[in-house]
């Protein structure tokens, strides 16, 4: 017997109608090269409805992929709305990828049209002949000075909106229809496309409003520093629509000074980004008014304790860790202090907030050992972390079902080794492939990195396994130090003694001028391994 | 093209697994006649799994209705879990209804088994021969002293759980399957059954976690004073499972003294009930420690401003209004202070929190005039309030589709006249049938009641329309006054002059020893009209 409730889809159009009708007076604020664009939400939605009509004008078919190369901007928000609500699929692209990866991804997605910020044209246009499916390139003039190519495929965004006779009427969708597409960063193998549904986007937005996750409310001023090409900017634009917040967008102005100025001038209450962003802002904190700030969410890679401490001391705000994946919309877990943690000291509280924490509602986690058996959630025993839920991927775009990333019973294999305690708090022990196996025993590179980063002269640390004749593998510590430091292997040994097992302590330390990163800002252990291999030759 | 996300149902089993795995150490606390029962959630879930097996033992078929006559108690929570997760339908019954109504409802639902608190047996057992579909009566011993009937249909709850050889394995459900059933109080016509789905229950629980609705978090201690027979106790038990709160249940101990004691001893942070509850608690507030209380939600009928003021003065907590319907799971709207209300004084803030406020996410509201045309959301123009969303009913149990309560395009007609302002804030002007039409113009009985209740000697007021030869109808004020008051029509006229249009002021005032109520605690205007008619004879 079915329940007798209204059959209303969980779709992006619901979010759009809500922000238009109830929060039309709230604002989207975008930094531009010549100032700031401030637009009430009702106008943003009105423009999105015209944009949907423009896609009709360009004969973009239903379900076609609409690619975007854009900074975090109002026009990008308009695309977030217009593309899915008109029955097409929003495909956000990371302009920091290499040409070969971009070409692969655009062709794998078979993008029909690309929307490109003018300042990013130099990245995109030279590749255009490699994109046979792309029929139109719509340029969003963000104040860039790049000349526009004289080519019939090129259109101007604002001119196109002006050509439209009327806003497009709404298109009915099924909540399981695809709404957007984002590719994994592909640290191993080819990038893979994750195809979000309207349903997963709406459920994820609801989760971000939860008191124990991000608690996004109408009173918030939300700043997604995480790029809008990266997993729907962690879902924050959609959550902002649902809650009715002001939304502050940095545009191309990603310098620490520009971000600090935005945060202070607009009295930002909630900001989200990767640890490198928080590290970059650190020197500016003493002279920046962040009195409105209530929550800073860090994700994408592990949050060093030293960074969390420095932020806490400078602002009074403890940075909150979140943990997710492109395949998980992305939020899987978000840390917080629960009643069982009452009585912890500030240092322990900060450490706890630096772990992934408990899974969000609707998402379930389990640990599986090498034999495929479940591992107890005792906070000690590690296993491969697997996750399930309605906001988690079941497969990859264009791939055959049954990919190795999914178990037979449909859980996502995260590729991470974790522990879970009896209260559901996750701790990531390591990436499966980043464990160092020495003398037949595993060394956790993540734990080792955290301990090394506790040294006052170490800014950042990355540990990789290097071949060793006697032990199979030994850990190599790659570090970035503070200016003038004479940190070396002896200093490391002195620091780590008593903190980790003695056989974990790396014999070798490399002090590097810079830690190599992937295009999404994560430490590239692949590049470190290549560097090590090249130095051995 | 479908999104490639996991096909995981939004079902009650998801809530049950979450509270068991992550919040098993948190507690369900039930007041009983001989003390208090305190049980960790993991045991409650374990018992619910045994209860599901007991339903198998009793041969309760899939999709059968399992009726409950119970106070707010741990066993009732076990039924909330076991019945829907085992593929049956939980049917909560209001034991305060008259025998004829109960008989109608049990037979309309065709309940297969009834679970009855021992103290409620005197209400239920005398009717048992009128319930031909009921095969079993399972008695939950709540310390009542009523003798158990010597009848093969009668079973003891605890004995039944002990008979079960093993907990029941989970039963897969579709998220649109029916999970529970609750009948409207039927102020007009027959009571009608609303059939909630697993999906609507989970979405509604998620909504209650939202920062701008009830913001239920793991740190909360939740006290649903609203009965568990009334629209799933406003969804609070399910929200508590999702968030992992302690859940405090008053059992049969519904006296103000017992409630105050529970709130203070367990440091309740969140409590919800009807205005009559808050009025009853008022005299006890000065000697009750409510320092943990962060939110009090009032619903079911309009919150008098004088009551809100008294609570605010005594506790520092401003009572929050919520507005809902049995047909709406029930929450439609929940008031709060938005950024546009910054700068309001405390009195204005309290008044605003006393209105229904904005709709919760996923629920949409519109106003329709007599001609069926939409009315502008200008905060002034009234229209019939209609609502839509995935937690709103599409029809009634056992009824033909196309009931008068639903529009052709599938919206629920609430039967209330409301205004909506440009920020989405609802104000209820009147029940459609409670408007007084005098001299061809409408008088809002709700507004008039609120103004009358602002008089210091008026405890409660209800206005009905009475026939009038000259004007068609005139308002009659029925009031309950403070002890010793000599409040009369002249006092009313003096009080209302300047507050409402002069032609709104009732010529007649009835000072009653008691305001008649419906079984769910609402003022019964039907009874007042009958009283008026009988006095005219």
UniProtKB/TrEMBL annotation, chains A, B:
Q: Which organism is it from?
A: Micromonospora lutea
Source domain of life is Bacteria
UniProt keyword annotation of Hydrolase present:
no
- Taxonomy-wise, where does this protein's organism fall, top ranks first? Bacteria, Bacillati, Actinomycetota, Actinomycetes, Micromonosporales
| InterPro entries reported for this sequence | AMP-bd_C, AMP-bd_C_sf, AMP-binding_CS, AMP-dep_synth/lig_dom, ANL_N_sf, ATP-dep_AMP-bd_enzyme
Q: Where is the AMP-binding enzyme C-terminal domain?
A: 447-522
List the protein's name: Long-chain-fatty-acid--CoA ligase
Check the record and name the PROSITE patterns matching this protein.
Answer: AMP_BINDING
For this chain, one GO molecular function annotation is: ligase activity
Q: Which UniProt keywords apply?
A: Ligase
Q: Which Pfam families match?
A: AMP-binding (PF00501), AMP-binding_C (PF13193)
| Domain AMP-dependent synthetase/ligase, first and last residues per copy | 41-397
């Amino acid at each position: 017997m079915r329940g007798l409730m209204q059959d209303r889809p969980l779709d992006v159009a619901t979010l759009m109608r809500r922000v238009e009708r109830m929060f039309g007076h709230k604002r989207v604020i975008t930094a531009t090269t010549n100032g700031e664009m401030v637009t009430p939400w009702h106008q943003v939605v009105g423009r999105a409805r015209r944009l949907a009509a423009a896609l009709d004008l360009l004969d973009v078919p239903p379900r076609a992929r609409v690619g975007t190369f854009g900074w975090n901007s109002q026009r990008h928000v308009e695309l977030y709305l217009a593309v899915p609500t008109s029955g097409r699929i929003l495909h956000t692209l990371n302009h920091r990828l290499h040409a070969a990866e971009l070409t692969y991804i655009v062709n794998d997605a078979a993008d029909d049209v690309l929307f490109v910020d003018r300042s990013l044209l130099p990245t995109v246009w030279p590749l255009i002949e490699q994109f046979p499916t792309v029929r139109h390139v719509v340029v969003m003039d963000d104040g860039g000075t790049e000349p526009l190519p004289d080519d019939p495929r090129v259109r101007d965004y604002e001119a196109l909106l002006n050509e439209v006779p009327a806003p497009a009427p709404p298109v009915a969708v099924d909540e399981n229809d695809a709404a957007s597409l984002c590719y994994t960063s592909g640290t191993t193998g080819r990038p893979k496309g994750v195809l979000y549904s309207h349903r997963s986007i709406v459920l994820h937005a609801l989760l971000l409003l939860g008191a124990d996750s991000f608690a996004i409310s109408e009173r918030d001023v939300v700043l997604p520093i995480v790029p809008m090409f990266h997993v729907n900017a962690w879902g924050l634009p959609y959550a902002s629509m649902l809650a009715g917040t002001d939304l502050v967008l940095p545009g191309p102005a990603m310098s620490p000074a520009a971000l600090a100025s935005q945060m202070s001038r607009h009295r930002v209450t909630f900001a989200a980004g990767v640890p490198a962003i928080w590290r970059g802002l650190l020197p500016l904190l003493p002279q920046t008014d962040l009195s409105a700030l209530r929550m800073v969410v860090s994700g994408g890679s592990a949050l060093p304790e030293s960074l969390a401490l420095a932020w806490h001391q400078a602002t009074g705000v403890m940075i909150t860790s979140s943990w997710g994946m492109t395949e998980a919309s992305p939020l899987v877990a978000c840390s917080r202090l629960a009643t069982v943690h009452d009585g912890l000291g500030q240092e322990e509280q900060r450490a706890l907030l630096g772990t992934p924490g408990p899974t969000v509602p609707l998402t379930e986690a389990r640990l599986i050992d090498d034999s495929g058996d479940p591992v107890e959630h005792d906070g000690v025993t590690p296993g491969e972390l697997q996750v399930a839920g309605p906001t988690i991927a079941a497969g990859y775009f264009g791939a055959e079902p049954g990919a190795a990333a999914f178990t037979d019973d449909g859980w996502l294999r995260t590729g991470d080794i974790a522990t879970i305690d009896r209260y559901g708090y996750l701790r990531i022990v390591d990436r499966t492939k980043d464990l160092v196996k020495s003398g037949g025993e595993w060394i956790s590179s993540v734990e080792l990195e955290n301990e090394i980063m506790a040294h006052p002269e170490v800014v950042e640390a990355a540990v990789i396994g290097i071949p060793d004749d006697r032990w199979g593998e030994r850990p190599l510590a790659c570090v970035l130090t503070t200016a003038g430091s004479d940190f070396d292997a002896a200093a490391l040994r002195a620091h780590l003694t008593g903190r980790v097992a003695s056989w974990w302590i790396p014999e070798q330390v490399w002090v590097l001028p810079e830690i190599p990163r992937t295009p999404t800002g994560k430490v590239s252990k692949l590049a470190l391994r290549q560097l090590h291999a090249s130095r051995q030759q």
